[in-house]
Amino acid sequence: MRQLSTLLATLLLAGLVACEQTKAVSTEDESQGGLVATGNAQTDIYAYLKDSLATDWVRENPELMETEASYFDKERAEKYFIAPIQVSGYSTPFAWDGNLSMLRFLLSKDDSIEVLRGAEADPNYKGIKITWKQGLSGLVWFDNKAYEAPVKDWWLIKESECPGTITFPTLSFEKQFEVPNAITNSLEGLAIIPFNSEFKEIKASDVSLKTKNGMLLNGKAYDIDSDGIVDVFRYEEEIDETTSYSRLYLNVGGKWKCKHVKQDEVCI
Predict the structure, then answer these.
(1) Run of H or E including 108
(2) Better-scored residue on pLDDT, 42 or 229
(3) Burial of 246 by CB count in 10 Å (0-12 exposed, 13-18 middle, 19+ buried)?
(4) Rounded to an integer, what distance in angstroms lies between the CA atom of residue 89 and that of residue 182?
(5) CB 133 within 8 A of CB 42
(6) What is the structure's pLDDT at 39?
(7) What is the pLDDT of residues 133-152, one digit of tens each?
(8) How many CB atoms sit inside 10 A of residue 144's CB?
(9) Residues 6 or more apart in contact with residue 151 via CB below 8 angstroms
């Protein structure tokens, strides 16, 4: 993710509240129905957030040329969620969830949740925070090392130090290690939910893949099952001087399916 351009914003990043300037989800009125953790909490909260979601930031995804099939078929692709992750200033692994795709997946796996809002979510940044009562774990992978990491929470903050902006929510995992110079780190990796020990030997490389329109996209390839075939492809598109947009594709039976998108914009 781009580093924010003010010291204060950089400090906010340390607490997983970096300002994503493009509109995502509004929490202006947290008193509306659907935020109370009732028996239908998972349905209510997702419906509320989905109805509040702005989608004008979402861009069209290029179609990639087909490739060799590898680990993921349709059934396995529905069983797992894969997303790019970063490390916060507190050494906490986290992923952005601007279109709620991670939240939707996790709720489908475990609907036993607790929904906190306002000061109960956080006394300073408020917003909506969701935790899972029964506990979920994912595999987080950094620098050729894999860790089994419990999901900590899903959080959409309300208070922001970037005037006129609306933040994207984040999904955080429990801290696995200390990162030197954590506030300014640029460590990136993958999260695979749920945890599967088979994926410990993930290999990453730089690669260029061709679209069906003949364009070459330069990005990062991941082979998660050591068969020499790319399973995951991630690349970042520069929109302008202050904005970037990244996509993560999954190789499903030889066809590339975009599974995660993220937009970053510098907060000035």
Answers:
(1) helix 101-109
(2) 229
(3) middle
(4) 5
(5) no
(6) 42
(7) 988 999 999 989 999 999 99
(8) 11
(9) 106, 132, 135, 136, 137, 138, 171, 172, 173, 174, 193
Can you tell me the distance from the alpha carbon of 249 to that of 255, in angstroms, rounded to the nearest whole number?
9
Q: How far is CA 134 from CA 57, 111, 112, in A?
A: 34, 9, 7
Higher pLDDT, residue 221 or 240? 221
Which structure tokens are listed for 137? 């774990």
166 pLDDT exceeds 80? no
Residues in the chain: 268
State both tokens at 108: 């489908």
**Strand 232-238, strand 243-252: pairing:** antiparallel
Bond prior to 194 in cis (omega within 30° of 0): yes
CB–CB of 129/208 below 8 Å? Answer: no
Q: HSE-up of 41 (CA within 13 Å, CB side)?
A: 20
Cα–Cα distance measured from residue 253 to residue 72, given in angstroms and rounded to the nearest whole number = 6
DSSP E strands: which ranges in 174-215?
Answer: 188-193, 203-210
How far CA 76 is from CA of 21, 101, 214, 241, 250, in Å, comes to 34, 17, 29, 38, 11
At 117-129, the pLDDT tens digits run 999 999 998 999 9
Give, rounded to a whole angstrom, the gap between the first and last alpha carbons of the chain: 15
Higher pLDDT, 121 or 6: 121
Better pLDDT: 154 or 55: 154
